[in-house]
User: Fold this.
Amino acid sequence: MKKWGITIGLVTILCTGGMLAGCGGSGSGSTANSSTANTSSTAIQGPDYSNTANWLALPSSADAREVDVFFLYPTVYQQSSPSDPMVCAINNPQMQTDAKAAFSRTATTFEPMANIYAPYYEQAAIQVLELPLDQQQSIVGGQPTADAISAFDYYIQHYNKGRPFILAGHSQGSNIMINLMADYMKDHPDVYKRMIASYVPGYSITPQYLQQNPELKFATGADDTGVIISYNTVSPTIAVPDPVVLPGAMGINPITWTTDQTLATAAQNLGGIALDSNGYAVLDAQGNPQRVLNYADAQIDTAKGELICSTADPGTLAPGNAMVTAGIYHNYDYPFYYFDLRDNAAKRIARFLGRNN
Assistant:
């Protein structure tokens, strides 16, 4: 277990919310999966995305690659006192610092094959979970979603230049991306035609959401395109329900890319990554994320809508709070399957470009 970098420092990050990726979005699940989703998001004025300071990641040059990734980072903002705003400013120092760490352990999986565009956004604090469900829905589906839509539209208008793209996020970022797809893709079918796939692990896609957005579809294999990929990782036994797993949640196995209960062993896993005490990916001598082999297996529980990992030790991977208890591997949706996600993105890109040549 030491190879996973689960040190006292990392436990501190987990407990203070620095790796509570997307838990702040759990209440907005109904926002993303209800008939009222996104009704207010496009009416809210967002930040100025012509200002490069409002972007976590922009490529220095996009000319060398045929494909982009538009990425939304997970929940990293927390209120330090009750007087702090529930939704932080886009230049909040704590959010921006922790967003960089989150980016290193998630979005970097796509770096070898794509230009990555990642906006900062006015994020809901982890404390949003303490509010009634309808208030959670209103907050995450309000300004944070509006910012993401504004940033994505700016990206399409000024950066994309007609290239195919992948959407990706984690947890609150995935929740917001689900809102963005329901809002933006419905109004811009020409843009949706260029979407290779949408990776939104750490939040739930439900049949209800797909019924309300029939132009969207869930992945069924390793290289289908124009599809949504989602899963939520837990141990075989958890004390309380995973807060981001909604009733009817759909999932795909990130090792086998099947939606049935086929078990993928840890030996089949192409590799996870280690994390340092600050929540960053541990790098090898070449400056690339260090591969960890034979760690995490994967099996979809079709009844519960969860991805079961039986080989990790829940006692070692410390929980973050009372809702993310031992055995909820929410923070490791990307780190457990990092190189499987990288390989899969490359396959979907190749399929998409081959289909359109």
Q: What stands out?
A: The chain has one domain: 2-356.
